[in-house]
Amino acid sequence: MKTTLSVLLFLSLCGLNFSLFRKHLHVNRSLSWNEAQKYCREHHYDLSTLTSKEAHQVIKYQDINYWAVWVGLYKIPKSLLEWIWSGGENEPYFWSSDEPNYLDLEDCAGMVTSNSLLLNINCHTHFTFFCMDLFELILVKQNKTWEGALDYCRENYIDLVSITSENITTDVKTNTMTSQTLYVWTGLRFLAGHWFWVNGDEYENGSQNIPLQCPANNLRCAAVDTTLKVLKPQDCEEHLNFFCINMKS
């Protein structure tokens, strides 16, 4: 069974604000560090880059049979002190005490499953490992109906955004500040007696803004209120800005 964790990163590029989400997946295959990196780059984005908080979260939900797992940190060849993340991110390291040591060939970082701390290990050792996927949230400043927004996202990106974690919720609220409409479409829709996200998840966090009972016929699509920062049912034929989600390659 694979358990995933989405983590929010805020980036700015060429004056355009956008956000990246890291989603970590534990791969239950025993490989060397280099083999694990190759696997992650072929099937996902890369070996996982983690903060200390992420490390505790991903380990907490896993049943791992090894005392350590590979992550994406390694020592630059022929250097003594320089360690970098495989994916190029600039996240701080969270070493165990007295680590890293400088024994020969211990140039790759594993994460101890009992305490979620890092230590340097011989790269040829075989462990299971964490890969990551990167997703970006994109605010599209075009005015479309909910169906029009759905079609646009699926034709140009992956989908309308499904707000299924606290991190994505925070990011959506932040990015509504630059919207050109009072409401912004999300991937939440009411059909067949249920609110559900376009990624297939049912809507679970009911509130006074999105009633779980059957809404009025003209209020069956959900948008973010850019003033109150909450989801509200809206007429699906309204023309609004919208959020798409895309996978970063």
UniProtKB/TrEMBL annotation:
Endpoints of the signal sequence: 1-19
- SMART domains recorded: CLECT (SM00034)
Does Signal count among this protein's keywords? yes
User: For the C-type lectin domain, which residue ranges apply?
Assistant: 32-132, 127-245
Question: Which InterPro entries does this entry report, sorted A to Z?
Answer: C-type_lectin-like, C-type_lectin-like/link_sf, CTDL_fold
Pfam family of this protein, just one? Lectin_C
Per UniProt, which keywords does this protein have? Signal
Q: Does the keyword Secreted apply?
A: no
Q: Which PANTHER family match?
A: C-TYPE LECTIN DOMAIN FAMILY 20 MEMBER A-RELATED (PTHR45784), C-TYPE MANNOSE RECEPTOR 2-RELATED (PTHR45784:SF8)
Question: What is the name of this protein?
Answer: C-type lectin domain-containing protein
